[in-house]
User: Which sequence fits this backbone?
């Protein structure tokens, strides 16, 4: 993916740059709002990371609003130290697709970024079927089959699997699951998400030879086709 | 005090001036557009009003005294003096009028008597009776004069016909000579038959003396009143200053950092100001206490994980032999840092909620479906720990609140319960409408989470909502001691309250089967009967009022 990173802090910028390069992405970076806006409007990117508070008189929200007013639909992940719910809402209202607060874990950033980059393709056409390896999800009938064998899932488990399948091959963090599958925005002290995922595993992986749901240490989960590696 | 009031008073007349000008312009405009209609009356009225206002404003602007209390005192003095003067003048006027009336009546009575005598005996009888009266000295101040048609004096104690007295239809008050002195007299002339003329009068010197005495009294009264007015003014000024100073003293003490100061209440109208200011100070104090508590807590509890992370990193930098060691140390330090971030975020959120700034997301919401959702989320992890979740959710009325915050609050309560409930026990999540009386209209919603864990001592319960507070037997469990603080803050934001109680207040609860092996979180007491707290359980109740629809309106500003 081609990623634009607009971030004024050199440490964070070089860290994110390095990490994204390692993950195989091409990164352009800008350290102020003016350059960021210039790059954003003149080049085509798959996804952008915007810091909100930037030097140069143009802040992240401003860049975002300018882009959206030009019908530029590039997914934007806002990265900011402003962690307030109101700030978050302001960011999303201005046209942001996701909002992360500093300090952040790179794994979380990468997971969210890849989810965003993937979404543009995934949502181009509404899909009624999701196929990952031998796992098949019928989104209309709400049916799951693996190897042609039907798996009975609770509605919530189905949504969980659906989310994993939509982002198959990508790391999905616990926070993302809590936000996207349950629509909760708090930090549970107990391992509530892990338990739900392990229940899903019981049904999706246990009866079969090869597991598809993998735990990524310090990050989250990934749904992968067995022979896909 | 005067420097502080001066700009205020200086500014006020300008405002009035401006307003006066506007009213005038406005009324002129009305007058022009609606000339034919009977507006002019109102127009002249409003113009007179503005003139008055202008006059008042001009006086106000040029008034030299800039002390509110002194002005007040002066006004008091002026009002007192004016009313006293009016009162005394009325008394004076009324008394003299009464006296004069009395004199006139006696003159007329006398004259009638003389005329009757004339009927019996003509001039001789009248002059005899006058002489007789004068000799007898019946009334020392009585004046008589009987003259013949030729103007010759027949009887009486007046030396001659006074020159001004011509008509017989009115009283004359003139100066007359009596014996050797000149005096003021009230006279009335009467025409008798055959051209005889009679004057009956009365020396009113006494009245003049009385007038003089009364005038003197009045002057003295005025002096005394002025003195009293001055004293009263000073007393008022002192009272006024006392009130203002007690407020000023308190606010200046607060400005210098002493938040415990309060304005004393004295039962007067100023109490309204005093209670408002006091309430404001209470709130300020609470917020300041919160800030202080947080900074203490940060100093105390946040240094520990920071120190731990630092030690790990330093140790790794100095002693790590292999890359794996290094990575492990760094990963652990990262976990520590994430923990610290979590604490910071929780603290900030609590502080923010407590400051009451976060009502932007308030909206009508139904609690029960929310609780089903959260219960579903938690049920799995509870089952995994061998806990049972019992739901007792009744239909509840809509409340006005912040959905996310309530979700978080309930999640915190469930987290707590999961942490402390022994395996095999039941956690109950219940919701019910809150009523003042059975069958009355619900006034709120009550959400409660009860467990069958070790419970809390009463002293701990009282402190549980403090930031970073952790009960002794909870020290070993993970957590930061901020969960209940957040719930408390959310409750307060919704004008509700969080209360903690025993699930089974009646005493030790029969232990469940399979709970003999103590959970690590619950201390190390081997036998349940030695620890009466063992199974009393903790019940956290969140009471939320229905909320005011005004809360969902955007905040002003």
Assistant:
């Amino acid at each position: 993916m081609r990623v634009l990173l607009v971030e004024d802090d050199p440490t964070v910028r070089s860290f994110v740059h390095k990490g994204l390069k390692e993950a195989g992405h091409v990164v352009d970076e800008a350290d102020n709002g003016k350059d960021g806006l210039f790059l954003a409007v003149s080049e085509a990117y798959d996804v952008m990371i915007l810091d909100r508070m930037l030097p140069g008189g143009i802040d992240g929200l401003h860049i975002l609003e300018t882009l959206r007013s030009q019908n530029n639909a590039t997914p934007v992940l806002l990265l900011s130290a402003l962690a307030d719910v109101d700030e978050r809402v302001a960011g999303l209202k201005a046209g942001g697709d996701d909002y992360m607060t500093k300090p952040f874990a790179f794994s979380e950033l990468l997971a969210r970024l890849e989810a965003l980059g993937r979404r543009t393709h995934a949502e181009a056409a509404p899909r009624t079927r999701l196929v990952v390896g031998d796992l098949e999800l019928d989104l209309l009938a709400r049916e799951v089959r693996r190897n042609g064998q039907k798996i009975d899932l609770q509605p919530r488990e189905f949504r969980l699997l659906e989310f994993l399948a939509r982002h198959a091959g990508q790391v999905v963090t616990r926070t993302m699951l809590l936000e996207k599958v349950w629509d909760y925005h708090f930090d549970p002290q107990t391992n509530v998400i892990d338990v739900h995922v392990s229940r899903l595993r019981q049904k999706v992986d246990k009866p079969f030879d090869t597991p598809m749901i993998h735990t990524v240490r310090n990050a989250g989960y990934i749904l992968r086709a067995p022979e896909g590696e | 005090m005067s420097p502080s009031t001066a700009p205020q008073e200086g500014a006020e007349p300008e405002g009035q001036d401006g307003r006066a000008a506007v009213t005038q312009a406005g009324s002129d405009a009305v007058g022009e557009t609606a000339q034919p209609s009977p507006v002019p009356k109102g127009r002249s009225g409003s113009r007179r009003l503005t003139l008055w206002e202008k006059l008042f404003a001009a006086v106000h602007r040029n008034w030299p005294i800039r002390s509110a209390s002194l002005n007040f005192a002066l006004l008091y003095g002026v009002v007192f003096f004016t009313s006293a003067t009016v009162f005394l003048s009325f008394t004076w006027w009324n008394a003299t009028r009464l006296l004069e009336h009395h004199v006139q009546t006696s003159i007329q009575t006398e004259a009638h008597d003389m005329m009757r005598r004339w009927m019996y005996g003509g001039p001789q009888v009248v002059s005899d009776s006058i002489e007789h009266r004068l000799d007898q000295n019946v009334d020392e101040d009585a004046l008589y004069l009987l003259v013949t048609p030729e103007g010759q004096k027949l009887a009486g104690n007046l030396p001659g016909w006074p020159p001004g007295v011509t008509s017989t239809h009115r009283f004359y008050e003139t100066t007359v000579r009596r014996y050797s002195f000149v005096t003021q007299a009230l006279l009335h002339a009467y025409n008798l038959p055959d051209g005889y003329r009679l004057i009956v009068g009365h020396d009113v010197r006494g009245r003049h003396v009385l007038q003089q005495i009364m005038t003197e009294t009045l002057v003295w009264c005025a002096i005394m009143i002025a003195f009293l007015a001055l004293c009263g003014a000073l007393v008022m000024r002192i009272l006024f200053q006392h009130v203002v100073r007690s407020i000023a003293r308190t606010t200046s003490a607060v400005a210098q950092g002493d938040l415990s100061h309060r304005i004393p209440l004295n039962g007067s109208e100023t109490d309204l100001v005093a209670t408002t200011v006091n309430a404001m100070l209470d709130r300020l104090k609470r917020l300041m206490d919160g800030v202080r508590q947080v900074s203490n807590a940060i100093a105390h509890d946040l240094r520990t994980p920071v120190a731990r992370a630092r030690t790990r990193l330093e140790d790794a930098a100095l002693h790590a032999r292999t890359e794996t060691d290094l990575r492990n140390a760094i990963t652990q330090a990262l976990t520590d840092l994430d923990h610290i971030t979590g604490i910071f975020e929780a603290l900030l959120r609590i502080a923010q909620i407590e400051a009451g700034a976060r009502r932007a997301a308030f909206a009508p919401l139904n609690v029960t479906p929310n609780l089903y959702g959260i219960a579903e989320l938690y049920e799995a992890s509870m089952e995994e720990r061998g806990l049972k979740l019992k739901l007792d959710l009744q239909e509840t009325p809509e409340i006005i609140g912040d959905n996310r915050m309530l979700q978080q609050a309930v999640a915190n309560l469930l987290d707590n319960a999961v942490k402390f409930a022994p395996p095999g026990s039941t956690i109950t999540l219940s919701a019910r409408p809150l009523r003042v009386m059975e069958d009355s209209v619900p006034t709120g919603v009550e959400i409660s989470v009860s467990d069958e864990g070790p419970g809390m001592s009463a002293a701990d319960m009282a402190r549980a909502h403090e930031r970073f507070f952790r009960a002794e037997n909870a020290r070993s469990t993970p957590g930061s001691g901020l969960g209940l603080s957040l719930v408390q803050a959310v409750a307060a934001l919704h004008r509700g309250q969080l209360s903690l109680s025993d699930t089974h207040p009646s005493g030790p609860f029969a232990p469940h089967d399979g709970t003999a092996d103590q959970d690590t979180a619950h201390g190390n007491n081997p036998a349940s009967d030695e620890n009466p707290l063992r199974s009393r359980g903790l019940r956290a109740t969140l009471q939320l009022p229905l909320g005011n629809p005004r809360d969902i309106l955007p905040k002003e500003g």
